[in-house]
Amino acid sequence: xxxxxxxxxxxxxxxxxxxxxxxxxxxxxxxxxxxxxxxxxxxxxxxxxxxxxxxxxxxxxxxxxxxxxxxxxxxxxxxxxxxxxxxxxxxxxxxxxxxxxxxxxxxxxxxxxxxxxxxxxxxxxxxxxxxxxxxxxxxxxxxxxxxxxxxxxxxxxxxxxxxxxxxxxxxxxxxxxxxxxxxxxxxxxxxxxxxxxxxxxxxxxxxxxxxxxxxxxxxxxxxxxxxxxxxxxxxxxxxxxxxxxxxxxx
Length: 250
Known about the structure:
The chain is an alpha/beta fold. The protein has helices at 40-48, 72-77, 95-109, 117-130, 148-162, 178-191, 230-239, 242-249, and strands spanning 2-11, 14-24, 29-33, 53-62, 65-66, 80-83, 90-94, 141-142, 166-170, 197-201, 215-220, 223-228.
């Protein structure tokens, strides 16, 4: 589903990614961990097509198509979803109106007509119930006055509605207490299937107790320097990252 080869990227002429290789197949969950400043959020932004990042070498192939030249919204229409670490507030735009617009724009890009209002309402109710979201929540302005947990749950609700092929969760666990973390993780687990894939970017092993990865990759200094199973995450939790840095720099 996603194949990244020798990816180099920079922002404001500062080189951040220095040769990333990663392959994600349908049905898989990949966790990307690493110390601060190693390039984790840059990698998610580059896959999603944020334009302030410049790809200087390498390729990103999604669903068999080279997407290097595609804008962020074109990548979204093709099924790439990025959950933000710090979701922005949009006063005056309700959660429901935002999601209706996003779905219909995506349908339009694929040559489909707008989803009938009746079907949209049914889908919204189904997904809200699935994620244990209060209906009143849906009429509130997007992220305005939301707690950290509500913002993250709203991101997972958007993911549920848009039904992406590839969901990238960029530090979805930051700022969440244990209850909010469990709710968000349960939502992700309910949405996983054999036809989609999830990339989880996190500092902490605790999220991976709830969203169990098939593979764990350690990103350090712009490269994936170690890969393994979920046991690698436990090792990082116990020992930190210094031993990884020593291995790389030896």
